[in-house]
Q: What sequence folds into this?
């Protein structure tokens, strides 16, 4: 029998290394027909002026999810527009943070029609960035956030096949054509991103090489000398700039070729309608299109958790 209480008084906290717990957030959205990730530009060392996932340290009195919501609100101002956070995984490699040993819990979400974020707290700026820009190193991420983002992209790409996750990128009521376009955008852009990630092997490793620990003391980093500009601008994009102005600067890979083959409209419609409980008809029609097309039937997502059979991307023709 083991005792019900611990009576050993030899425990001394100073015998164990200090470490901290943080949260990181991956907020995906589809804007202007591109899959985007919410990034912030850090305004504090380490990695000052580098771009990063929103997140920060968990306070002593907080649970993990409360910390995630607080950091999202402080650094981007859009927490009230995000409906659900799902835990991705935990990251705890030694040396991933130059200040001290840090374990981070990553959360991700998929949302429709997110507003423009506003940088706050220790975030100088915040922006929804096309994911396809990141593998070509036009945007450098702090810490091991490239690895975390790659893991989240893989999760998103796989999960839309066997769950209704893709509908979270759609309005509450949507047409099958809108849903098909969402699948096409996600599969196309995640394919581009992962191809770039495979090409650059360091993409999955820690991004903290310029800030390697010299000793066990916190804050032994060397801050970068100047801001790292996002996209093609010489200065960070102002958060108050209209989205349309940002788009012309941001989608660097817009015309790049991809092997992705778009879904066939007829086959896709048959596939989604044969999954009982996936979509529920609303009995309403969409507004007539400006091109003169007929109004389409509107659907909403059903109560199904798993899609069987799953929805698969179309294989490119050889």
A:
């Amino acid at each position: 029998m083991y005792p019900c209480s611990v009576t050993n008084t030899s425990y001394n906290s100073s015998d164990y290394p200090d470490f901290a717990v943080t949260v990181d957030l991956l907020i995906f959205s589809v804007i202007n027909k591109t899959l985007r990730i919410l990034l912030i530009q850090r305004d504090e060392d380490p990695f000052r002026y580098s771009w990063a996932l929103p997140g920060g340290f968990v306070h002593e009195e907080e649970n993990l999810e409360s910390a995630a919501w607080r950091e999202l609100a402080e650094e981007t101002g859009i927490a009230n527009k995000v409906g659900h956070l799902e835990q991705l995984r935990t990251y705890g490699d030694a040396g991933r943070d130059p200040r001290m040993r840090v374990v981070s819990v990553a959360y991700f979400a998929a949302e429709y029609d997110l507003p423009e974020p506003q940088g706050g707290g220790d975030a100088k700026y915040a922006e929804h960035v096309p994911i396809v820009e990141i593998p070509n190193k036009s945007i450098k991420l702090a810490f091991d956030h490239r690895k975390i983002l790659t893991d989240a992209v893989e999760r998103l790409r796989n999960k839309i096949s066997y769950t209704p996750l893709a509908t979270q990128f759609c309005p509450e009521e949507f047409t099958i054509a809108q849903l098909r376009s969402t699948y096409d955008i996600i599969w196309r852009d995640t394919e581009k991103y992962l191809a770039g990630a495979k090409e650059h092997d360091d993409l999955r490793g820690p991004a903290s090489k310029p800030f390697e620990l010299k000793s066990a003391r916190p804050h032994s980093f060397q801050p970068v000398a100047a801001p790292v500009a996002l996209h093609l601008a010489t200065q960070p994009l102002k958060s108050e700039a209209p989205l349309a102005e940002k788009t012309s600067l941001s989608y660097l890979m817009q015309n790049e070729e991809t092997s992705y083959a778009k879904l066939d409209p007829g086959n896709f419609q048959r596939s989604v309608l044969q999954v009982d409980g996936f979509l529920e008809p609303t009995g309403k029609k969409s507004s007539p299109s400006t091109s003169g097309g007929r109004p389409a039937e509107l659907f909403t997502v059903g109560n199904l958790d798993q899609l069987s059979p799953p929805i698969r991307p179309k294989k490119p023709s050889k």
